[in-house]
Design a protein that fits this description.
The chain is mainly alpha-helical. The protein is built from 15 helices and 2 strands. A two-stranded antiparallel sheet has the order 1-2. The protein is globular and about 55 Å long.
Length: 341
Amino acid sequence: MSIKDTAPAVADPPETTAPQFYSLASRILAKRRVIAVAALFIAACYAPFQLMPFHTFQLSMALVYAIALLGLNLLVGQAGQISLGHGAFLAVGAYTAAVLLDRWEVPHLATLPVAAAVCFVLGLGLGVPALRLRGLYLALVTLAIAIFVVPLLKRFESVTGGSMGLTLEKPVPPVWSGLAEDQWLYFLCLATAVLCLLVVAGVQRSRVGRALNAIRDNETAAEIMGVRPAFYKTLAFAWSAMLAGVAGCVYTWVIAYVSPDSFAVGLSITLLAGLVVGGLGSLWGPLFGGLFVLFVPSLAQDINQAAPGAVFGLLIIAVMYLAPTGLAGLGGRVANWIRIR
């Protein structure tokens, strides 16, 4: 009898549980994300009942900027196209809603799809010639669009009100809601922002989102794999303009006043900076960017009238140094640093 036959039987080693562990960890992480998003939404709904009207107005404006940055993120963060003219599309959406409200007394909610459609068509038209440009040349062309819009709005005074702009009425809260005017405006902004966030999240997880990411990473390789860069770039430009138009429309509801100087070139540059600070390519980056764009200059101005620009620039440098992926990626960066320690 051989040694092999007399040796005690040894049980086979158990199969590795690594796949099961990672599956369990991913489920736990997904549940935590759902809980975190639900808690954030509940806090957002609870906030206007605890804040002063001015602070509620500030949160409404932060949501407006977040909607605009969601569109810019599709173009810059997903498709990899530089744009310095996003404020121009926001102006078109705002003036489309303002003219409808002022000239034809269209209901406020009815102006939203019209402003979105007008900006979508405009973005589609401008996206086609932009296909031949990239990098710095595309940035300069979009910057020229932002420069061109302000004097154009001033020229058609009979429609746009010229330099004086248009003064409008804010949406009146329905009686059944029991809400004050600032609270009603906030919930309109919140509902629009959530809807836009869901749409963008669906796009990012779809075939279109994967195609945009492939074009951003390597356009030549994406084209070899069957992706049509021209089609998807034009589509990203149109969607970006459409979301900017939605933001412009909601801006008109909140401010109840539009003027050409509100959409100067500095707005487009500020939006791009806010997107980079919030987190380029991240779904939650536009939300952080909207808060950054609104509150940082406001808080800096309380310190000194000349401080907003300096503080804004210094904070951008600090965020880029401490969190290269933006504020949205700061949590993961801190977690990795703690794990290494």
